[in-house]
């Protein structure tokens, strides 16, 4: 029924939502297309694809799965329809999910930390993705787990995965952003353990700061444990050779005016052998999510370190994640190939060459989900 409802929804949108039809142009063509879609929704690959992508864009996760199930039921052995189904499902799913789930040190750190604190607790998993952390908590003996996932297609997949692993009696997954939850959806006084993995390689990306502030204020019990507890931004002045790729000329033309539009950041994992540290690593920014005081969504930090000598053109940056119970994870350059959280380098405004022993200041500015690093 959901698949046919999806088809009807799509047909109505074809008749009403396009500027051309609204202006009276090509209205007959749209009507004919809609009638054709009504008759053969599940037997035309172009209609299957268009309808599926339309539903994904409208966050209709359950309808997407119903549409795919009915269409593949009609074409179980047709590789074209299976290929289109994968296109639809993956349309808004970030590619880093696969790398994240393959990061064994990351998975092991979360598993050890969750096993130490989850038993007997009501758990909230923010941004559950595949449902892995929620299942680890349920396996560890959590009283119950409430999870949320903003991408409804991913949420539907997580529900199937949880059910396939026999844990759907303990885990409830809401297809929404955590800001749409309230304490009544958690139950009792709120979550006694709040888990998240919604921070990026620069800590503040993916909206972790406002999400956890909301969770502490609106979803968590007064004495809730947050996992991870602390994330630290580790930095060092460094040289990347060759420097970050920024073409300044092509075909004899001066393109230097485009330089300011190139991103300042580059993933170190793309060529770790090209990086040489010009200072010892240092802790620049420390975010303590276990603190009862809300973390500011805007902040600055700076430190002074001693140069080793040599030319530097970037600030190298990576993470140290502390989960509590003595469990920690650090993705320093050259140490963890294949890590989900990839070390980054931030290009300096201009290269510098401080003498050995000279002081160098490295600074950070963040606001909501954006981070800028600098050195002088």
Short précis:
This protein is of the alpha+beta class. It has helices at residues 2-16, 19-22, 27-40, 45-57, 61-74, 79-90, 96-101, 104-117, 132-140, 152-164, 183-186, 208-219; strands at 122-126, 144-148, 171-174, 191-196, 220-227, 230-240, 249-250, 253-254, 265-267, 275-277, 282-288, 298-306, 312-324, 327-330, 344-352, 359-367, 370-375. The protein is 35% helix and 28% strand.
- Helix-strand pattern, N to C? HHHHHHHHEHEHEHEHEEEEEEEEEEEEE
Query: What is the CATH architecture annotation of the largest domain?
Result: Distorted Sandwich
Gap from first CA to last CA = 63 Å
CATH C-level name of the largest domain: Mainly Beta
Poorly predicted runs of 5 or more residues? 13-31
Number of helices: 12
Sheet of most strands = 7 strands, antiparallel
Give average pLDDT, whole number: 86
CATH homology group of the largest domain: Hnrnp arginine n-methyltransferase1
Strand content: 25-35%
Radius of gyration: 25 Å
Structural category? alpha+beta
* CATH domain topology of the largest domain: Hnrnp arginine n-methyltransferase1
Gross geometry = globular
Q: Helix coverage percent of residues?
A: 25-40%
Give the domain tally.
3
Count the beta strands. 17
